[in-house]
Each structure stands twice: as structure tokens, then as C-alpha cells.
Amino acid sequence: MNQSEIEVVCGALEEWCERTSTTLDSDDGRDAATVMLGLYKTGHGTKGAILEAMRRVNGE
Questions:
Q1: Is 43 strand, coil or helix?
Q2: DSSP secondary structure of 7-58
Q3: Cβ partners under 8 Å of residue 12, min gap 6
Q4: Model confidence over 17-57: pLDDT tens digits?
Q5: pLDDT value of position 12
Q6: How much is the pLDDT for 59?
Q7: Is 9 within 8 Å of 41 (Cβ atoms)?
Q8: Which range of residues forms the domain containing residue 34?
Q9: What domain count does the chain have?
Q10: Which residues, in sequence order, are CB contacts of 43 under 8 Å at separation 6+?
């Protein structure tokens, strides 16, 4: 991954953690990071696209 790709995933993860009151260094935070990396690799190339997919995954 290059720097901009990392920034997209990290930005989405930080926003998701804030919204869900989850700490990054928790089981849920690490699980979310793994899911978001997978989403990015399967074509969700923006922070918004990753967050939207996470909402669908979580049934929001």
C-alpha cells in the first residue's frame, strides 16, 4: 500500500471508531481495521465508500 491508500483506510477507521465509541486498540477496532482493508482491496477506494460499506455490513 502507498501512503495515500493508507491515509484513506486510516481516515475511515478513525471516523468509524469515533462514531461507534470504539478504541482502535481493542478487539472491535482491530476487527474493523481488517474489514476495512478488505473493503479497500475489493474496490471501495474512498473513505466514504469504506464507511458506507461498513454501515451495510453492520446493518445500519
A1: coil
A2: HHHHHHHHHHHHHHT--TTSHHHHHHHHHHHHHHHTT--SHHHHHHHHHHHT
A3: 36, 47, 50, 51, 54
A4: 999 999 999 999 999 999 999 999 999 999 999 999 999 98
A5: 98
A6: 81
A7: no
A8: 3-57
A9: 1
A10: none
Cβ atoms < 10 Å from Cβ of 42: 9
* 39 in Cβ contact with 55 (< 8 Å): no
CB atoms inside a 10 Å sphere around CB 40? 21
Q: Do 47 and 41 touch, CB atoms closer than 8 A?
A: no
∠ Cα 17 19 14 (to 5°): 35
pLDDT, position 58: 80
Residues 6+ apart with CB under 8 A from 30: 24
